[in-house]
Amino acid sequence: RSVMAAKTRHFKWNVEYIHWSPDGEESVVMGINGQFPGPTIRANTGDTVAVHLTNKLHTEGVVIHWHGIRQIGTPWADGTAAISQCAINPGETFLYRFKVDKAGTYFYHGHYGMQRSAGLYGSLIVEVGEGEKEPFHYDGEFNLLLSDWWHKGSHEQEVDLSSNPLRWIGEPQTLLINGRGQYNCSLAAQFSKPPLSLCKLRGGEQYAPEILRVRPNKIYRLRVASTTALASLSLAIGGHKMVVVEADGNYVQPFSVQDMDIYSGESYSVLFKTDQDPTKNYWISINVRGREPKTPQGLTLLNYLPNSASKFPTSPPPIAPLWNDYNHSKSFSNKIFALMGSPKPPPQNHRRIILLNTQNKIDGYTKWAINNVSLVLPTTPYLGSIRYGINAFDAKPPPDNFPKDYDVLKQAPNSNSTYGNGVYLLKFNTTIDIILQNANALAKDVSEIHPWHLHGHDFWVLGYGEGKFSEKDVKNFNLKNPPLRNTAVIFPFGWTALRFVTDNPGVWAFHCHIEPHLHMGMGVVFAEGVHLVKKIPKEALACGLTGKMLMSNKHN
Ligand SMILES: O=C1O[C@H]([C@@H](O)CO)C(O)=C1O
Questions:
Q1: What reaction(s) does this enzyme catalyze (predicted)?
Q2: How remote is the CA of residue 319 from the centroid of ligand 1, in Å?
């Protein structure tokens, strides 16, 4: 048998603003090499990906985060501005060089300001390496990158969100599948409520749907990832069941569903069999869940060959579960277990951190806060700052818990919350439990969904619960087959328990993956084993106090 050596896969990318029409309305989007979404990266387990990223934006910095890639040994390549590196200046090139060590469905996106909302994203697919095998069989595969789109530009959105009073961005105009959606017209016009006209498409438009062409009686793998700024989605394939086999780059115990929830920051693989009437075509749909939807369903077609792709399905598109049917969402989340043979969590933790999620007012500004601290990133990125003992951030770490008498079910002003940029310093090679505690937001009887994403790690999802977490909930933790993930949701008025091991030296963001919420302070920063981090590339340090340090030449 031939032994294929791991490859280094080089990419040369220019990030620039381009005119593009994601949904039929021309906008300015952040493109890569003149494309939106950015190019798909495909690699094999064990490969090294080397992206030579040049910032062609004229007046702003840029970074790219490789979502779901743990960056073992390369924390400076995680692509988080002010955390792992200095933003890349206009005209400059940064080399993101990292190993992809685990097969799965991933994506990448901007992680500076609201550049993800501006359209800076694309797919990253890691296939099994030579001699490895997937634990399931399929005849073909498709890749769907899901997103939401606003006609208001990301800079204006940033200003709106930073205003007093808050100007909330509202719901997206369009849902996009592989960067393509339809605004003010529908592919399923005869079924649309309120009525919309049929989209007049010739097929070459930037917003024309990408059609999935299949042969009857085959098994297909659908890779799905959500990079939405805000929307939680429900995905369905009309008339077809889906079998979930992968979540966030980890295999799960296969289970069958008619529709699935996918939150921002999550990825899945599902298998489906083309076992329906082969003379017909079928809808693939995405709908908003978890927030009162004001956005039309996103659609594309499953085209059974040799039917013409212009043969529209005779039945209406799938009807999504009600947006606030949280029991439906919980039932989906509770079906996800690790595939037998997956790594198991350590049986005990060394430390438990409980993170209360609240919406607050700080000096009249609407913010999100974690244990009463609303995150504002420092000028000097943490990684270099901690590695070189400069520590240019709040010396006092944020609290591990919140006051015992806090009622998570009640409206509360949280008037004592503050801005902060302190760090949770985690002892290297220890087991950390995180309890994400949801609460009532500013409005009465309102609590929202928040998908939390951890950088640098996968965590085990030990359980979900209702109301306030208490010690007696620990006995219900799933230590037998909890799924490994990098993103997990907290349901309204509920909690979610996570466990991970601090085995990856670096500084890692942990935050709500809803872009406006992160912008409003909804995140924390973890640091572990930073003294073990090898030489950080100078380009990652060339700003703030680490930039000054480089100029004074002491550490070169
Ligand atoms: O952060 C948010 O702000 C609004 C609302 O709470 C205030 O208008 C909303 O729905 C959010 O998710």
A1: 4 L-ascorbate + O2 = 4 monodehydro-L-ascorbate radical + 2 H2O
A2: 26
Q: Please, are residues 479 and 347 in contact by the beta-carbon 8 Å criterion?
A: yes
- The pLDDT value recorded for residue 6 is 85
- Mode of pairing for the β-strands spanning 232-237 and 242-247: unpaired
In this structure, the residue with its CA closest to atom 11 of ligand 1 is 168
Does 441 sit in the ligand 1 pocket, CB within 6 Å?
Answer: yes
All residues at 6 or more sequence positions from 54 whose CB lies less than 8 Å from its CB, including other chains: 12, 13, 14, 15, 91, 92, 93
Reply yes or no on whether the pLDDT at 553 is more than 80.
no
> Using CA atoms, how far apart are residues 159 and 311, in angstroms rounded to an integer?
45
pLDDT for res 5: 73
CA distance 52 to 14: 8
Degrees (nearest 5) of the Cα angle 202, 207, 212? 80
Burial class (CB in 10 A: 0-12, 13-18, 19+), 197: exposed
β-strands 121-127, 41-44 pairing:
parallel
CA pseudo-torsion sign 132, 136, 141, 142: negative
CB 207 within 8 A of CB 231: no
Q: How far apart are CA 94 and CA 5, in angstroms?
A: 26
**Pocket flag, ligand 1, residue 161 (CB < 6 Å):** no
Query: What's the rounded Cα separation, in Å, for the pair 203 and 497?
Result: 46
265: CA distance to ligand 1 center in Å?
Answer: 19
Say if ligand 1 is within 6 A of residue 448 CB: yes
From the CB of 168, is ligand 1 less than 6 Å away?
yes
The interface predicted TM-score of the complex, written ipTM, equals 0.96
Residue nearest to atom 9 of ligand 1 (CA): 168
SS3 257: strand
Q: Which of 42, 10, 11 is nearest to 126 (CA)?
A: 42
Nearest CA to ligand 1 atom 8: 168
Best residue for ligand 1 mutational test, from 288, 294, 359 (most atoms within 8 Å of Cβ): 359
Q: Whose CA is nearest to atom 1 of ligand 1?
A: 517
Closest ligand 1 atom to Cα of 230:
12
Cβ of 77: how many Cβ atoms within 10 Å?
Answer: 25
| Tokens read off for 73 | 């040994």
pLDDT of residue 1: 39
- Paired with 48 in beta bridges are 8, 99
pLDDT of residue 380: 98
Is pTM beyond 0.95? Reply is yes
Substitution candidate for ligand 1 out of 157, 162, 168 with most atoms within 8 A of CB: 168
Cis before 398 (ω within 30): no
Atom from ligand 1 closest to the CA of residue 442: 6
Give distance in angstroms: CA of 158 to centre of ligand 1: 14
Phi, psi of 201, deg, nearest 5 = -120, 140
Atom of ligand 1 nearest to the CA of 368: 1
